[in-house]
Amino acid sequence: MSVPEKIRSEVQSLRREIERHNHLYYVLDKPEITDEQYDRLFRRLQDLEERHPELRAPDSPTARVGGPPAGQFTPVRHSIPMLSLANAMDEEEMVQFDARVKRLLGREAAVAYLAEPKLDGLSVELVYEGGVLVRGSTRGDGITGEDVTANLKTVRSIPLKLKARKGVGPPARIEVRGEIFMARKDFGDLNRSREGQGQVPFANPRNAAAGSLRQLDPAITAARPLDGYFYGVGEVEGSIPGTQGELLVFLEDLGLKVNQERRRCRDLPEALEYFGRLASLRTDLPYEIDGMVLKVDRFDLREILGATSRSPRWAIAYKFQAERATTVILDIAAQVGRTGKITPVAVLEPVRVGGVTVSRATLHNQDEVDRKDIRAGDTVIVQRAGDVIPEIVEVRTDSRKPGAAPWRMPDACPACGSRVVRVEGEAAHRCVNMGCPAQVRERIFHFASRHAMDIDGLGRKTVSQLVDRGWVETPADLYFLTKERILDLDLFAEKSGDNLLEAIENSRKTTWPRLLYALGIPLVGSHIAGILARRFPSPEDLKKASLEDLTGTEGIGPGIAQSVRAFFQEEKNLRILDRLEKAGVLPEAVNGPARQDLAGKTFVLTGTLNGFTRDEAKERIEDLGGKVARSVSRRTDFVVAGTDPGSKLEKAVELGVRVLTEDEFVKMLEGKSR
Ligand code: IVH
Prior knowledge:
Blueprint: H1 5-27, H2 35-51, E1 75-77, E2 87-88, H3 91-105, E3 113-119, E4 122-129, E5 132-138, E6 144-146, H4 149-153, E7 173-181, H5 184-196, H6 205-213, H7 218-222, E8 227-237, H8 244-253, E9 263-265, H9 268-281, E10 289-296, H10 299-305, E11 315-319, E12 323-336, E13 341-353, E14 356-362, H11 366-372, E15 379-384, E16 391-395, E17 420-422, E18 429-431, H12 437-448, H13 460-468, H14 483-488, H15 494-507, E19 509-511, H16 512-518, H17 526-535, H18 539-544, H19 547-551, H20 558-569, H21 571-582, E20 586-588, E21 602-606, H22 614-623, E22 627-629, E23 638-641, H23 647-655, E24 658-660, H24 662-669
Parallel strand pairs: 2-11, 19-20, 21-22, 21-23, 23-24
Antiparallel strand pairs: 1-6, 3-9, 3-10, 4-5, 4-7, 7-8, 10-11, 12-13, 12-15, 13-14, 13-18, 15-16, 17-18
Bound molecules: 2-(butylsulfanyl)adenosine.
């Protein structure tokens, strides 16, 4: 049965109307109707589409809520590589950049630039065909990204359809590039709600944006407040203007969201002045930026300048210095870790640095405190660069209050009052009591952590409460928790309680190296756990291992051997293992030799990975028999490229070495691809 023409045209006009209001609201920030009026239009459209499914269309505003979850992301090769930008560290390097541009262009006259804020998000490419959004992808390694179309469609400021421009239709095909980010306020709201549900908060808006965009279930992305600004194009069929300034207006006319904060600069001095303005504006902007991008304005000049395999010669990123702030040390606390190690931590008068509030900074150990001569009450300068842990870079001893005493490690553990000792030759002080509640809490927290048993939703606060109430003393107790008890904790409701129970349940099925790492044996990190699990394929084998068996294993030194031996000689620990077994925690037996999928393969790592530190990535490769090399050569099998990859990526492309995105790398580790 065909749909009456009247309905057809109503649907069409509703779509146009809703997209117009989306644009007014999400792009121009100038709504013309109330939320209720908008909802009514939206529901009417949903209703009609439900009654006439043949009218459904991928570019309908209702299609934004997300399609079915993807099993994995499909790789997308960018038709023109998405390059990165060269960095300038200081004004001197900016002067050099400007001089090189002029030299390459063979001119002495000033070159005009367009300066834009450098957004701290992740770059994406949108492809519009006949004005309709057909594909959206992440930058990936610049050559190949991931197809995240369904997710990008949920971003309200991204038009599903481009608008006509002064009566002229959009280009036949256009690839648009820009940055997806999360506004600071939205980030704060999201994290508060996550914490309320016992979920781990995101470290910063960039991670939140990246994590949200790379969800396999678009419905999750749809619920995240993502936004985007567009600033460039890839391949275009159709004509585009001749300068960056005009291109931005062009994109805006097509209905794309463009940052209004930008400036055309007639020469470098103007650009440097604008950089100063951006720096002072930085903390007031609703989104995070980490510098300025300076681009030669004229496209014909860009053409002459060209690009290296990494970055265009016509643009440069001038990054802000690592942010520093002055604050006061309120107290120096002694924090007890899972192995009993006691770490001095500066408790700070909370201060905003680089977009986050910092209220603690580690001081590492007594020697470090002595060396920097840090005392409670001191005025200090804290620095935070990128995602790194904040550190104290300077103590203002000139303004020290008279009578401020040097800090001394306490003789008694602050958590349990037991003796604190410093082992000969070690920088660390330790609490001698294995049953110390602080140690118990940290051990459980470690047990649940991502590279151990990976129990999502079991944060420090929750563990703390479980330990304080006496419900959990050892990791095995987690598996005997009841729903009543979980619901009795702060921060848990029906749904989040179920989620936690499910996460605990799921963790029963694990691997022996993970379980071994999770036990938290001193000196046994995930790499060592992998070696031990290969040599001693079951808990029983390891329990029986003598000191000689252990030291006879390649990669296991006498210190580790001692530590492992001592652990398995301790009656308490054996009881925990028994109870874990009773709880049904069954490590997948390492039958015969462990997986050696990567044997004989050489990897080179470049750029920052989201899910691992460099060391962790290296360990995982080595666990599977692979090797990690420092530089790329013809013998390299794979280059793993994270964000902001270095010249190693360039070299890999040049030598034709296979480049893996982080996702492809993870799949390889999990044995899901070759
Ligand atoms: S233009 C050829 N403009 O910075 C590269 N990039 O380090 C052209 N970025 O991957 C990029 N704000 O994710 C450009 N206003 C801006 C930007 C910007 C942030 C990011 C982008 C790119 C990275 C390069």
